[in-house]
Amino acid sequence: MQDLSFAAFFEQFISAIGKGLPLFMGTLILLWMARLIREQTTQYNENEQLFVADNHAVGIAAAGYYIGILIALTGVLAGPSLGWKIDMRDCAVYGIVAILFQNIARWSTDKFILRGFNIDDELVRDKNKGTAWTLFGIYFATGMVVRGSIMGGTTSEIVPGLVSALVYFVLSQLVLIFSSYFYRFITDYDFHKEIEDDNVAAGLAFGGFVSALGVIIGHASGDSLTLFDIAMFFSWTVIGLLFLWGTEMIVVKYILVPGHNVSKEIQADRNENAAWMLVVGYQAVAWVFVLAV
Fold it and tell me: CB neighbours (10 Å) of residue 260?
């Protein structure tokens, strides 16, 4: 019996490796493509900035870009298998879509969220890590939305999934742009000005805010586009923004940073420790919210 059990286990193990290896190799190819596209869409040589200039800001932004793409791909990898050929097709198509969406999100951030200054100049000339952390948060949020919109599909038809991913991506970008105005309303300082002035803590705090919002709206994204689904998406957005607002007022103020003014720590003292506590608070609230509701 033990020999039969081991043989069955070994057969299942080999079968799993056989199915997973093509997806693994496909993911590596997509990362290579993502790097090539990134090199063509930025105004600097990424390898030179990373390994010659030792530019930490470019490293943070690049890490967010690749992590966001990988998060999006988990929507394919974690979903039900429809056969290795369809799985490979979905991995390739949605992977390319994720790469394109991340580059569009970067353009959207440059034009509408961090408007008034050039992202590439801030990353390269000023080595502005505040800008980099903001981009990291946007990339993370975009990856979560793409993941949510393609995860759980049970049909071999890819067009509905692409339409769903496109619609929720556009909606999420509008939400993220709006969230930048909302964030300015709920904070005691102009985060845009602080980031432009190389305040790393301000960029880190805002990046944590938008990444947590991405967790929430990513959970609200799906492969269905009925009016009810769209209404639920915006309902989750509003509730999520309110919950994240309450994070600083309650969770951070009384639990994570008791006895200190978080806004003062970030604006006046440029205290990255306070910003990290905000990131922890935002992420805790977002993940508990989506898992509990």
Answer: 16
